[in-house]
Each structure stands twice: as structure tokens, then as C-alpha cells.
Amino acid sequence: MSGNIHFRSPEEWERVAKDYLDKGAFEYIQSGAGAEETLLANVRSLKKWTIVPRVLRDVSAIDVTQRIVGVKAPVPFALAPVGFQTIVHPQGELASARAAAAHNVPFIVSTVSSYSLEEIAEVMGDSPRFFQLYWPSDDEIALSFVRRAEENGYSAIFVTVDTPMLGWREQDKQNQYFPLRNGQGLGNYLADPVFLQKATVTKTEDAIKEVASRLFNATLTWEHLKWLRAQTKLPIVVKGIVHPEDAKLAVEYGADAIVVSNHGGRQLDGSISSIDALPAIVEDVKGEVEILFDGGIRRGTDVIKALALGADSILLGRLFVYGLANGQAGVEKVITQLKEEVEIALALTGETKIRSLQSGVVRKVTN
Ligand SMILES: Cc1cc2nc3c(=O)[nH]c(=O)nc-3n(C[C@H](O)[C@H](O)[C@H](O)COP(=O)(O)O)c2cc1C
Ligand SMILES: CCCCCCC(=O)C(=O)O
After folding, report:
1. Residues labelled catalytic
2. Which of 72, 128, 161, 234 has its CA 20 to 30 A from that of 153?
3. Is pTM, for the whole model, over 0.90?
4. What's the 83 CA to ligand 1 centre distance in angstroms?
């Protein structure tokens, strides 16, 4: 499927997406919160870590498979939850999900996907998928989302905890842009029986208003997680952890995995970069909980650095979204290119298996 798209560097993927998309949509994806310090720090801090490779170790047979929240994946990465994908391509999540399924790469469906989790499951067959919950202000709707995920073959629930409200997004304010306002990202709400019972929805404007009034929940606490733990047998992944104490609390409250993430620099500007947050969290909870990582990953060498620092696997955010500007073929090309790059980077690091990567192969430069 991806054969007709030639090689592109991460910078080119971004540039092509910029050419394809209108200004509001592109800047919504590309930008970060506030002065974008954290957005930049995610990328810059990764560059501060250098790989110190070993040689003469027979790297002729490379294995980059990895288990990701119970799924045996051919690569140590999955596609992160990204809402509103129809702002990038009319096929939105259906195109990304088909691409992920074609390579057996886990796909995470956002609560604010433009297609419903049922529609996405249908195009994915038996391929691995997870559901990401933005816990609405109404617990009955939250539970209904979880039940639908269970019934439609989603094998874990990612609860995103860094978004009690939207970050201070200056670019979007300037552009007066939020996809929900244009009727994007309604797929799951408009297919939800509990929401439809509670809301009066006769036209799109009503739907937007009704969803907007339930979308955010600033009252969430760890007790909600405990409650969810009692409601479902699916693994729970807490996404949006950068403080080691929160990582410990996630373990205490029954999480099976965490995602070390600052939401791609889109929430609290000035917060620690994801890669700088990782080592202390690894020190405190490695072995007690699976550790996923995202933020600034653009290249195979970034993947190697995060894995060496103790992440078990990686989520790709903007990188695959830029590929989506070229539809399913674009996302497939991003996946296959990155897989190849990870294989080469692993071998040139002097290792043959993902799980053999240790912190000794990376060093932080201080200048
Ligand atoms: C356009 C866009 C939409 C996003 N939507 C969601 C979402 O619906 N749920 C969520 O948990 N995270 C969301 N994220 C955050 C990603 O899951 C991920 O944490 C972040 O993109 C990682 O950083 P990176 O883009 O630098 O790889 C979104 C990110 C972007 C860029
Ligand atoms: C609670 C819903 C917020 C949706 C925003 C989507 C997202 O995570 C992002 O833009 O970042």
C-alpha cells in the first residue's frame, strides 16, 4: 500500500502535511501550549542524550518485536491516541487504523475520534487496538464508552490524566480553531446510547454543545481510577505521568501500565520534557508496571534512546499524523520507514534485541 510514496525524513513529513492542510488544522496539530517551551524541550532533550555504541557483537539477526500492553507487536511502538483525525484526511481514523492493522501495530482510538470505536473496530478485524478514555463529566457515559470498548475487541483502556482542561494554546486562540467547533471528533458520543438518552440532539450544533458541556472533567482524582479498576477486567493504562510520585500512585491504584508523557507539550507549558522525566520514574516503578513513553519521537534513534532509558515501548504522535495527510499509504510508510530505522539503529548500537537495551548505551551531554 505504501509502495508509491518515496522515502521522507520526519521534517519532510511535516512539510508535506503543512502543504496539504489548512492553516488552522496544521497549527492545531503542530503547535504546543504557551511559549512552546515543552514542545521544543521534548525534541531538544532527546538530542542531549547520545548513544555510545558497542562493536564486534554479531548483529546479523535483529529482533525488534516487543509486547505492548499484552499484545505481541512487530515493532516497539504503537500509534498514540490522537483526536479529530478527519481534520487531516477525510478517512481520518479509518485510514490510520487500516494502516496500523496492515502491519499489526497497535492503534489507540481517542474518545474524540471522528469515527466511532465500532466503525474503527470493523475496519481493523482482529488487529490489536486500545481505547483512550477522556473521562466525561458524566460517569455513566464514561462507563458506557468502556463497555463499548470491551464489546468491540479493544484490549486495554488508556485513561488520559493530564487534560482536566485544555492547555493554554495560543496558536489555536489566534486561529480561533478547535476541531469540535467544526463538528469533528463526535464519532463516539453520537454513537453512545447513554449520551443520546441524556442529550437533546437534533442537529449538529446541538451535538457540539451537548458534547462540549460533558467533554472535560476537572473533578477527577485517583479514586475515579479505583472505581474504574472495579468496573473492568481490561488492563488500565494511565497516560500523562511525569512525576515519580504519580507513577507510584498509578501502581497503588491498580494501573497495569503508565505512559510517561506531557501530551506532546500541548498541556502545561514549562513542564519537564518527557525524556527528562523518564529515568526517575523508571527507577521507582520499573518492574511493577509497564512503562510506555511518548513526546518528541521522530526517528529510530529517538526510539532507541527512550528504550535504553527504561521505557518498554513508545507511542508515535505527530509523526504518524503528518503521514496521514497522505491517507492510509502515508501512515503505512511512516510505520515501515521507522521500523527499518529502528532495526538499523539497534544493530549499530551493538544490540540485537529491544529488551537488551540498557541505560549504559546512552549518555547525557551537559553542554
Ligand atoms: C493533534 C493531536 C491530538 C491529540 N489528541 C489526543 C487525544 O485525543 N488523547 C490523548 O490522550 N492524547 C492526544 N494527543 C497527545 C498524543 O497522544 C501524544 O501524547 C503526543 O502527541 C506525543 O507527542 P509527539 O506528538 O511529540 O509524538 C494528541 C496530540 C496531537 C498532536
Ligand atoms: C478532553 C478532550 C480534549 C480534546 C483535545 C484533544 C487533544 O488531546 C489534544 O488536542 O491534545
Report:
1. 263
2. 161
3. yes
4. 8
